[in-house]
């Protein structure tokens, strides 16, 4: 995360929050999460929308969901248990 804790990244996040302040205030009130936390997550994950990747989000979300199914958890646990 060292590349995320520099003046350029902080300025990008601050500017993004100011440009979308109404949205972040609404989200803060609705979800009881400070707007700074929401913007920080967006900065880490996408550089506030500048890097959204080039793959379908459905693929990655489905992988995350399937990872929590009990059979997959057991399989992965056993597979990692057997590693030296």
Q: Please tell me what the overall shape is.
A: elongated
Roughly how many Å is the radius of gyration? 18 Å
**End-to-end gap:** 29 Å
Low-confidence stretches: none
Oligomer: single chain
Mean pLDDT: 86
**Helicity range of the residues?**
over 70%
Compute the number of helices.
Answer: 5
Description:
Helix 1 (7-19) crosses helix 3. The chain has helices spanning 7-19, 21-31, 35-46, 57-67, 70-81. The chain is mainly α and 84 residues long. It has five helices and no strands.
Task: Briefly characterize the structure.
The protein is mainly alpha-helical and 84 residues long. Helices cover 70% and strands 0% of the residues.
How would you describe this structure in keywords?
84 residues, mainly alpha, 5 helices, 70% helix, 0% strand, elongated
Mind sketching the topology for me?
Blueprint: H1 7-19, H2 21-31, H3 35-46, H4 57-67, H5 70-81
Helix pairs in contact: 1-3
């Amino acid at each position: 995360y060292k590349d995320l804790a520099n003046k350029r990244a902080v300025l990008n996040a601050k500017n993004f929050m100011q440009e979308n302040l109404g949205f972040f205030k609404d989200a803060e009130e609705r979800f009881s999460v400070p707007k700074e936390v929401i913007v920080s997550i967006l900065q880490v994950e996408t550089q506030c929308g500048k890097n959204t990747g080039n793959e379908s989000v459905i693929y990655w979300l489905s992988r995350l969901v399937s990872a929590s199914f009990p059979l997959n958890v057991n399989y992965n646990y056993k597979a990692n248990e057997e590693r030296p």
